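Consider this today:
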Amino acid sequence: MKILFTHSYFLQFDPKQVAHAQPYPPLGTILAAALLREKGYAVKLFDTMFCQNPEEILPILEEYKPDVLVLYDDGFNYLTKMCLSNMRDAAFVMQNLAKKHGCKVIVTSSDATDHYEKYLAKKADFVITGEAEYSLLELVNAISAKQSDFSSVNGIVFTSGNEIVKTPKRSLSKNLDELPLPAWDLVNFEPYKKIWLQKHGYYSVNIATTRGCPYKCNWCAKPMYGNTYNMRSPANVIEEIKLLNKTVEFSHIWFCDDIFGLKRSWVTEFSQLVKKESLTFKYKIQSRADLLVQEKYVEDLASSGCDDVWMGAESGSQKILDAMDKGTTVEEIRQARKLLKQQGIKASFFLQYGYPGETAHDINMTLRLVEENMPDDIGISVSYPLPGTGFYEKVKLELKEKTNWTDSDELALMFKNTYSSSYYKTLHRYTHSMFRKRRAEINWQSHSGFAIKVRALASYFRYSFSGYLQSLRLKRQSAK
C-alpha cells in the first residue's frame, strides 16, 4: 500500500513568515513517515512549504497514485498550533482532490484535533486526535487489512452512517527513543537552504528533543500532548545530529521544543556528549526565565553551542504574568537576561499584549522591561484564544464568527478588551520602533567603524520618527 504524506503549511500564505525567511521542513510529518516506512509501507512526501496553492498536489496524486493521503501537520512548528484559517482552507482543498483520486484521507493536526467535525465534513475519512504516530500505524494497518470496523483504534474520529464516532484517547508515548529517526531523506533541502543562505548567510535545521510542556499558562493551547512532558535521551538526539551531518550541510539547529532541557541533568549530559563527539554547531531554543536562572544552566547551554534563547517573557507586569498563570517573575526575566549576556548568548523576548485586564500601566511596564533589559530581538503577539485553554473559556462568549487568524501577522483581537484591535496593531509597531531605535543607539555607541555608525544613525532617526507617529496614533486610539 502506498502512502502520500503532506501537511497544510504554505509559506506563501503567511507574508510575515515569507519576510522572516526561516523555513523549516515538516519535522513531525517525516517522523511519522519514517515509522510507516519502517513497518513496510511505501511512503512519499509532498512538501507544501514552497507551493503557491494546494492544487499543486494534483500531479503527485496522478503520478504516484497513493492508496492513502495522510495530511500530517508538523506539531513541532508553533505556526501550525495557531490554526490559521488560510492553512485550514488549503487542507480542505487537498482532501477533496485526494478523494476524487480514490484515496482514503487521514488528517492530524492541532486544528483538526480541536475541530474534527469540520474536517470530516470536508471529506476526511479519519481525524487522528492528539499524538498521532501509533494511531496512524494501527489505522493504516486496519485499512490495509480491509477492515470495516475501526472502533478498536484509539485516538481517532470518523463518521459511521450519520454519526461521528470518537474512540478512546490514546496514551502518550513515554519512551521517545523507540521511534525511528525522521525520514530526512524525503526532504528536498535545496529550496530551504537557498532561502537561508541568501537571507542569513547560514543554514539552520530543526530537531525536537522533547514533547509537551508541564507548565500551565492558561492561554497556551496543548491539543496534542496536554500538560505532559517527555524527553528523548541526549544520546538519541546526538545520533540524529550525526545523521543530519551526513545528509545536509548545516551550521545551526533550531531545537523546536516548547521547552528545551527542562531537566538540569539533561542539559549537562547533552553538553558533555557534544564535546565528546567533537560536534560543532550553533543552536537556538525556547525556554523560561525560571529555568535559565538555575545554577550553571546557562553555562552548559553556552558550552554546547547555544547562541540564542527565546524566552517567554510575555509581560513586564507581574499582575499580568500571574493572571496568565505563567509561574515566572519579572525579576527572573531580568536575571535570566543578565546571565545569558554574561555567557555571550543572545536573549530574545516573546511579548504578548492584550491579555484581559491589561491596562496602560501594564503596557508601560512591558515597554520599560524591554528598554531596561534590551533583548537582542523581540517577537510580539496579542492574546489569541484557542480551544482547550482557560483563557478561551473566559472569552468564548465574546467570540463571534471569527475565531482564527488568517495568517500569523493578522493580530486581530477577537474579544472585547481595554483597547481596540487597531490600538494593539499600532502598539505592536510602536514597540518594534522603540526597540529598533534603542538597538541603533547601542550600535552607535559600541562600534567605532564609520560605516556602521552612519547606518546606526540613519536607523535611529528613522525609528524615532516612526515611533513618534505611532505614539500619536496610540493617543488618538486610546481616547476612543
About this structure: The chain has three domains: 2-166, 176-416, 419-480. The chain is about 45% helix and 15% strand.
